[in-house]
Input
Amino acid sequence: MPLLPLLVVVGVLGLAIGSFLNVVIHRVPRDESLVHPGSHCPNCGHAVRSRHNVPVLGWLMLRGRCADCATPISARYPLVEAGTAALFVAVAARFGWSWALPGYLYLAAVAIALALIDLDVMRLPDKIVLPSYAVAAALLVPAALLAGDPAALLRGALAAALLYLLYRLLALWGMGGGDVKLAPLLGFYLGWLGWSAVAIGAFGGFLLGGLAGAALLLTRAAGRKSRVPFGPYMLAGAFLAVFAAAPIGDWYANLLTSAPY
Output
């Protein structure tokens, strides 16, 4: 089937999901309801008009300010919406019309929410992480069976166990409990793709986290004892593997075979 209609539909879906993720990112860390009250200005309390709730366009129409009290509205809101749409389109381009696509779209949405919450409050909420195990199983178990690849489930389970053990060990040296809970979920998704994805996703998270930490130290934005959330780098490493495990694996294999002995 043509890919373009899928990309358009998924992009529009991503804008809508991104709008909802803004609510999740703001309310979940505060233990607030995702349903009540409806979208409203946190300064004056007025409800957001329906036409202003249109992803990205609503913020542009308002010129980044509340329609009632003119309080500035963070540019992060349209960026989350546009970013979710872009990531959804990228995931759809990667998986195409496949049974696995819904599972990885869910992972994309969860990744954006968890990364920004961790950056905001340095916490990966159980309310998002733990239910994601059930959702991942509900989406990827049928996908593997329908695709005729039940071995993907075994790889996913083994990879989840391996990453759990790795992060549980690292917890002895200060790794956060939220990171330990997130690791098996990412392991399941990466293992579903293959062992090269597991290796690149796990290593990529530590590499990206190390580079970011070094940059913060060099710019004096953080000190040696500063706490730095690691969840965003775990998630970034996972998506690096989702999109580039095959070319990175091929590059590394070529590097090994061409090395002089």
Observations:
- Residues 123 and 171 are 15 Å apart (CA to CA).
